[in-house]
């Protein structure tokens, strides 16, 4: 670099960077989500940020995501070695774009060390080389849970997912939300009953999954391009628009499965979703929190059964805030064994961005400190340190102001960082073993004996 050249130190497009108040909000949400996950017995794991490219692309599971390949930058004397070795094929590496495919590889690698059904949670950063735009990032944190079994997995695990979603979003207190539930077998079975070929069904499901993004008219156009007749298209539109409460929709589905031709797959899907709904109810999820929505398909082809999407009532434009579903072949593809699983994912970075912008969430204070011990005079620093430590031992977060500056400036510093209480000890207070405790939220200031300071602060924090 030539002398005088300026370095562009702005963040790369699509790679978020948090201020302290934003990061504290993320950590609070992570703690809340983790608590619920562990309450249901999920255990944490971590997989590498880097996987072999062939793992990420196994059986086309890249979906519509663009994978970031990685290539080390080597000095010229080593570049020739790399060119000769030719890091291709099984040696090519890339950044993981989700948690599910790496989970499948993780289970294959540790098959004999894990207990099944294996219930794990993971809250890692993933990378997608898609176009960065508002609410869409190239690096973001996902909070995932999955349960994977060998051979068979009870549908009650599917039922447990809406209960977990409900607990998380009620704890975060973001307002009313709706968990929309469907089963891919219902869609597949209905298309089969219309005489739509197997090759067309996957494309049709993908088109239906985009209904909310592109609208009904565009869906009809896309189905026409796939060779679906106008009569078939009309029946598909009528089917995915079946509405009503859960029991009404179930009744309509049962009627269709009993009267349509070639409806074995449809009937199986209806039976499965009925079992899941019964489990959701037995887990105490309020009726207002879930529904059956036949337009929910989930675009990734590895989903085979139950699927979920969660939307915020009144803020549907935010899109799904938690989604997932059941898969049968994804994990087993690495070891040639059937290993069904079900899981959900919260794209936390995107969720925080959207909820902050909508005013549904607010950032936290820039510091976790609840108290600042003011620096009135340098010779009292031993007292300030002792008082600070006594507060910390009681579980109170404290900033000790080491720098001597005017008292007004210290109050400004505390207020700017969101510290609520300031402890003021001058020479007279120190001699009398007292302090002044000021609440910056109310402006109230009281005199407190040092021996009672911990108790007083804890009482006011409570």
What does this protein look like?
With about 450 residues, the protein is an alpha+beta fold. Helix content is about 40%, strand content about 20%. Strands 1, 5, 6, 7, 8, 9, 10, 11 and 12 form a 9-stranded mixed sheet that branches. α1 packs antiparallel against α5. The mean pLDDT is about 90.
Averaged pLDDT: 92
Count of discrete alpha- or pi-helical segments spanning 4 or more residues = 16
β-strand percent reads: 15-25%
Helix content: 40-55%
Using DSSP, what is the number of strands?
17
Largest sheet: 9 strands, mixed
Rg from Cα:
28 Å
pLDDT < 50 runs, ≥5 residues: none
Distance between the terminal alpha carbons, to the nearest Å?
56 Å
Strand-pairing-aware structural class: alpha+beta
What is the overall silhouette?
elongated
Task: Identify the notable features of this structure and list them briefly.
462 residues; 16 helices; elongated
Topology at a glance:
Elements: H1 20-39, E1 43-44, E2 50-52, H2 53-56, E3 69-70, H3 76-85, E4 93-95, H4 100-109, E5 118-122, E6 125-127, E7 139-148, H5 156-172, E8 177-183, H6 184-193, H7 198-209, H8 211-225, H9 230-240, H10 246-259, H11 264-282, E9 290-292, E10 303-312, E11 322-327, E12 341-347, H12 348-357, E13 371-373, H13 381-393, E14 398-400, H14 407-417, E15 421-424, H15 427-431, E16 434-439, E17 445-449, H16 453-461
Parallel strand pairs: 1-5, 8-9, 13-14, 13-15
Antiparallel strand pairs: 2-4, 3-4, 5-7, 6-7, 7-12, 8-10, 10-11, 11-12, 15-16, 16-17
């Amino acid at each position: 670099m030539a002398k005088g050249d300026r370095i562009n130190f702005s963040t790369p497009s699509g790679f978020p960077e948090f201020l302290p108040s934003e990061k504290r909000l993320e950590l609070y949400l992570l703690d809340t989500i983790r608590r619920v996950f562990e309450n249901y017995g999920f255990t944490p794991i971590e997989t590498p940020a880097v996987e072999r490219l062939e793992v990420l692309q196994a059986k086309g599971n890249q979906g519509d995501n663009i994978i970031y390949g990685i290539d080390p930058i080597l000095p010229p004397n080593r570049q020739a070695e790399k060119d000769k070795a030719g890091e291709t094929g099984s040696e090519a590496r890339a950044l993981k774009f989700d948690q599910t495919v790496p989970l499948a590889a993780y289970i294959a690698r540790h098959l004999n060390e894990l207990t099944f059904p294996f219930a794990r949670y993971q809250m890692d950063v993933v990378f997608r080389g898609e176009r960065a735009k508002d609410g869409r990032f190239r690096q973001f944190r996902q909070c995932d849970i999955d349960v994977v079994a060998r051979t068979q997995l009870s549908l009650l695990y599917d039922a447990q997912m809406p209960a977990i979603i409900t607990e998380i979003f009620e704890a975060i207190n973001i307002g009313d939300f709706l968990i929309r539930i469907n089963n891919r077998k219902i869609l597949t079975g209905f298309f089969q009953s219309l005489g739509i070929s197997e090759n067309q069904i996957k494309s049709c499901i993908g088109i239906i999954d985009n209904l909310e993004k592109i609208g009904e008219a565009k869906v009809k156009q896309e189905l026409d391009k796939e060779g679906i007749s106008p009569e078939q298209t009309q029946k598909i539109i009528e089917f995915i628009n079946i509405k009503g409460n859960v029991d009404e929709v179930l009744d309509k589905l049962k009627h269709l499965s009993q009267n349509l031709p070639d409806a074995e797959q449809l009937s199986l899907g209806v039976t499965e979703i009925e079992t899941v709904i019964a489990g959701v109810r037995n887990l105490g999820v309020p009726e207002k929190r879930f529904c059956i929505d036949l337009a929910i398909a989930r675009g990734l082809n590895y989903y085979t059964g139950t699927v979920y999407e969660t939307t915020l009532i009144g803020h549907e434009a935010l899109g799904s805030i938690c989604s997932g579903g059941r898969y049968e072949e994804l994990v087993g593809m690495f070891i040639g064994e059937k290993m069904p699983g079900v899981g959900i994912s919260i794209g936390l970075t995107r969720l925080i961005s959207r909820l902050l912008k909508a005013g549904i969430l607010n950032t936290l204070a820039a510091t976790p400190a609840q108290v600042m011990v003011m620096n009135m005079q340098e010779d009292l620093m031993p007292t300030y340190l002792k008082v600070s430590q006594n507060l910390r031992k009681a579980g109170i977060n404290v900033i000790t102001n080491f720098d001597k500056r005017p008292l007004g400036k210290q109050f400004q510093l505390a207020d700017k960082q969101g510290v609520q209480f300031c402890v003021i000890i001058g020479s007279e207070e120190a001699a009398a073993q007292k302090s002044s405790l000021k609440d910056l939220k109310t402006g109230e200031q009281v005199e407190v004996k040092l021996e009672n300071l911990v108790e007083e602060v804890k009482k006011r924090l409570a």
